[in-house]
Amino acid sequence: MNTKRVFLIVLDSFGVGELPDAADFGDKGSHTLRACALQKEFDVPNMIDLGLYNIDGVGVGTPVKAPRGAFGKCAEASNGKDTTTGHWEIAGLISEKAMPTYPDGFPPEVLDAFSRTTGRGVLCNKPYSGTAVIRDYGKQHVETGDLIVYTSADSVFQIAAHEDVVPVEQLYDYCRMAREILQGEHAVGRVIARPFTGDWPYTRTSRRHDFSLTPPGDTMLDALQGAGLDVIGVGKIYDIFAGKGLREPLPTSGNTDGMEKTDAIAMKDFHGLCFVNLVDFDMLYGHRNDAPGYAAALTAFDRWLGGFLPKLRDDDVLIITADHGCDPLTESTDHSREYIPVLVYGRQVQPCNLGVRTTYADIGKTVCDLLGVANDLAGTSFQEEIGG
Hints:
The protein has 388 residues and is an alpha/beta fold. Helices cover 30% and strands 19% of the residues. The protein has two domains: 5-96 and 213-386, Alkaline Phosphatase, subunit A, CATH 3.40.720.10; 108-210, Alpha-Beta Plaits, CATH 3.30.70.1250. The strands form two sheets. The chain has a seven-stranded mixed sheet with strand order 9-10-1-11-12-2-13, sandwiched between helices. Strands 3, 4, 5, 6, 7 and 8 form a six-stranded mixed sheet that branches. Helix 4 (108-118) crosses helix 6 (168-181) and helix 10 (280-286) runs antiparallel to helix 11.
């Protein structure tokens, strides 16, 4: 297969069923696809035609007789279920050691160093919902100027501040300070700026920004960039990889903006990878246990997909996947340990069953092989199976 452009789209948190070790992560029974498919808002004919319901063991819907794409699912080999770990593994870097989490809040040595550096006090310091934390601590923050610091079940250090109290660029500077502090045993996956605005009960703005750890090894992004190919990251991709293997950020304000930017990129000549993260599934719906909203967002993506497929050139390949689960029908509001889907389409792609893969890294390995770039990434390529 002579591939010049690969579009790799991550539907953030769109898992397709619990992994065998899900119970160890508190996620027994999680199945994000199933939760969404139960909603009347769910209508995804294009993904179904590509083979979504044909995936082994998915247990949802009716498989189509002649899928238009290659289809399968990948297990997570890394020790985790967070965004950073999932994306790094997709790109060929398996994390054997879990990133630190803080179910009881951050220890004094972290917060004391943070307060000394920023000159501000700290509020909350416990796992919290992002919308609830500004409801419960927002007024005190506005009155005192102290920063709202909170976490979740993921490896994150989140800082919320009102834009009238802490200008956004200042908040970003505080995040950079935290990122410098949170190294070694406290090297969380992401430090996240969470600006909000307005009057109580306040509204979070779209100017969130993630400050990730630098990947400890090379990924498919480095391999592609080292070979002189274009590597375009849309949405959170630049942040997740701390810019490693990417030239410049191309942030988005949400799914609609991300899809529009992907449309625009598809109309351009480039040679390499367009790597897209669509975050609304996770941020707006999964974490808020909004199953109808999640289903409606998948429907909106699928409608966009129907218009995007004809824009692909003869030698293009599209891969649709996810980075973890976030079942909106479980009691938990956190990520879930699930398989991720793999749907592959292209005019030269041979429709086939890719089966159950042992690691997300098979995706990055395949991307490099499709683009003819030598690599020693983890994973097993499925290029030959799809007609390579």
